[in-house]
Design brief:
It is globular and about 30 Å long. The chain has a single domain (about 20-140), classed as 3-Layer(aba) Sandwich (Rossmann fold). The chain has a five-stranded parallel sheet with strand order 2-1-3-4-5. Helices cover about 40% and strands about 20% of the residues. By secondary structure, it is α/β, with parallel strands linked by helices. It has helices spanning about 10-20, 30-45, 55-65, 80-90, 130-140, and strands spanning about 25, 50, 70-75, 100-105, 120-125.
Length: about 150
């Protein structure tokens, strides 16, 4: 007799498709902001990889390389800030072409950030509807690659 808890072939296929779909990398040291962003994006069907710091994001990607469709990056973080991450990102082949949305509580968050990689700069507190619209624009619906 088959247990209800046993994964079915369809469930395994769904998990495999989700893992193969490019992910949004969400980097923010503010737990509340990160959790809210993760929740809204996952509710829309995006696969999210979360990191509480730029260092943690890089460590995660080194341990488990992932196909990314977008990076949502907090600008003001301790140790390695968002600007430092952007500089390093340009030197990592797997990350170099991944578009970035920057979020910041700074009064002038976009100053000097308009580059080929940074597609949008959003202020904090984050307006979740604006975040979702911006993610859809650059990552595509439900994280589909462009």
């Amino acid at each position: 007799m088959r247990s209800e808890a046993m994964p079915t072939e369809a469930m395994r296929a769904d998990v495999g498709r989700a893992a193969a779909r490019p992910a949004v990398l969400l980097i923010d040291d503010d737990d509340d902001a990160r959790d809210a962003c993760q929740l809204i994006l996952e509710m829309e069907g995006y696969r999210i990889i979360v990191a509480g710091s730029a260092e943690a994001a890089l460590d995660e990607l080194r341990l488990r390389p992932q196909a990314l469709c977008l990076i949502v990056l907090d600008l003001m973080m301790p140790r390695m800030n968002g600007r430092d991450f952007l500089t390093l990102k340009a030197t990592v082949a797997a990350l170099a072409d991944v578009p970035v949305i920057v979020v910041s509580a700074s009064h002038e968050p976009g100053r000097g950030l308009v580059t080929q990689d940074v597609k949008a700069v959003l202020g904090k507190p984050i307006r979740l509807v604006e975040l979702l619209e911006t993610v859809r624009r650059w990552a595509g619906p439900q994280g589909s690659a462009h």
